């Protein structure tokens, strides 16, 4: 059974006012004081962000427990310095990001200008183990049409700088300002994949392999496929559902490859449209069906995802969990819907943030 790891980026905020706070260095110092050898929490591009990574897990219940534990630990460390953490993919309130002290981050700011300063956005990355680069590239080629569906499920960024954006995932629109971000064409072989990455770095437009921000890529550090499209999810249960389905998609793609089934040849231009549709509407209106690339009700597309991955979900013992999680997601809605419902009820973006601080810990 493949192992799965999750990386989440959290927003650091004042627990009373909801304003983002550039206190990542202090939170990390507090975490290191409690556990000098800790490697769970890391700084990110801006001081208002904190990242954690789980261990690889094969059991989804254990993965869920670890995500909740990491969120609670982050909240505890932040609380000790008068700060809170929120699983929000963008700040609903106005913010002036504070660049973390780091030579790499300074290079980004000098190289890209304003798009760098707009990148106070929090994502969720799912790593799934693969046996080889050959299997990994075969998986990447077959995952492509399903990534916008994962975007819609995780969408959790309807507000930006104090305003309604009319997008469910505005984070994705901000993120795609990086020149190396977005969907890819099929690669076919590991050699073509690595040649493309090398060519991109050799242009000098991106700093290194770590800046190749494909929606899904081979990890440069681990023997995994890394799916990067998701907003950080407000509810930990949604993050677990996402990880469960990503593993099932990887299993399904690998099985298709071994059976000799060709990867879909969907063009990047159509994938961009599917991704835009998912980011704009989330689960509230039609998505583009991954097979036909024509509009279809979001609930039906999610049913198709469960059907497409059904054999893998059963083999992994995840079928019931995934079905329950999908039903709950459709009932409750993604984070974007939850944030909008909170604003409608309270009339205050500050109240939205402070309530999301509470919900982040479950």
UniProtKB/TrEMBL annotation:
Matches recorded under Pfam families: GCS2
GO molecular function: ligase activity
Family matches, as InterPro entries: GCL_type2/YbdK_subfam, GCS2, Gln_synth/guanido_kin_cat_dom, YbdK
Record keyword ATP-binding present: yes
Enzyme category, top tier: ligase
E.C. number(s) listed in UniProt: 6.3.2.2
Catalyzed chemical reaction(s): L-cysteine + L-glutamate + ATP = gamma-L-glutamyl-L-cysteine + ADP + phosphate + H(+)
UniProt keyword Nucleotide-binding, yes or no: yes
Keywords: ATP-binding, Ligase, Nucleotide-binding
Family the UniProt entry places it in: Belongs to the glutamate--cysteine ligase type 2 family. YbdK subfamily.
Function recorded in the entry: ATP-dependent carboxylate-amine ligase which exhibits weak glutamate--cysteine ligase activity.
UniProt xrefs under PANTHER family: GLUTAMATE--CYSTEINE LIGASE 2-RELATED
Name of the molecule in the record: Putative glutamate--cysteine ligase 2
